[in-house]
Amino acid sequence: MEVEPPYVFSGDQQAESGLSVTRAPDNSVIEIAVQGRWSRRMCLDVHALLRGCMAERPSAIIVDLHDLSDLDAASAGVWLAGARAASALRPSPQLVLTMPPTRQLASRLRRLGAVRILPIFVTVEQARAAVADRMLLTDRLYLSRLRPEPASAGAAGDLVTVACDAWGLPNLVDTSRKVMSALVTNAVEHTGTDMAVTVSRRGCGIYLGVRDGDPRLTGVLDPAADDSGAAVRGYGEGLRMVDARASVWGAMPAVDGKVVWAIVRPLP
After folding, report:
1. Does the reported pTM lie above 0.70?
2. Residue range 95-108: average pLDDT?
3. Does residue 222 form part of some domain?
4. How many CA within 13 A on the CB side of residue 20?
5. Shared-domain flag, residues 231 and 247
6. How far apart are the first and last CA of the chain?
7. Average of per-residue pLDDT across 117-145
8. What is the mean pLDDT of the chain?
9. Do residues 151 and 89 share a domain?
10. CA angle 211-213-217, nearest 5°?
11. Which CDD domains does the record associate with it (predicted)?
């Protein structure tokens, strides 16, 4: 099952699928909680969500399985396949599971030798502590409390320039500044909340994230009209440029709002 960008996971999808996803405040770790009985539908939903999260190349993905009902450990293959897929990426995000150690699923994964590439912790707090040092501070720049005003796009763009200079990525400055400007302008126009901006290195590319205080996806996926006048899914005006220039992009709930993000890589 392939998933095409943009990778957008909304609150409605969370309610329907039994999956919830949030971003850590520093935008480098994604946390997923799985609730309900394991089924074929949940298997497909988990597969699609993991692919979307990995496309963003976070430093780690923590999956909380405490509320998953999987008495026969039928989901083991999905988590092992996810860990293998993550380890093949560059840079490689760390996939981590949390669950009680007495669960049948934990026992099966240990028998399969999965813990070599798929760490299992008892609590989410233990998992957070284990992945805290995966991203070097020198690989990430952060700007908080940007006001919802047009001048913030310029400040965020300056941060992009500093990052590209520091990391030796001069060929990405122009495109990355334009993409960041569009992300910030979209937040200013559609949310009216303060923002936090993250710029981090992702291998030969650069990650751009804008976190705002509005959990709604207004301005991310807006209704547009096709030639017949029927409503179809479309993007806000600024994000059409993001869609055209970024290698991949998406949106995801955060603890206090959402993050709209993009990755810019050199042209092949």
Report:
1. yes
2. 96
3. yes
4. 12
5. yes
6. 25
7. 84
8. 85
9. no
10. 80
11. HATPase_RsbW-like
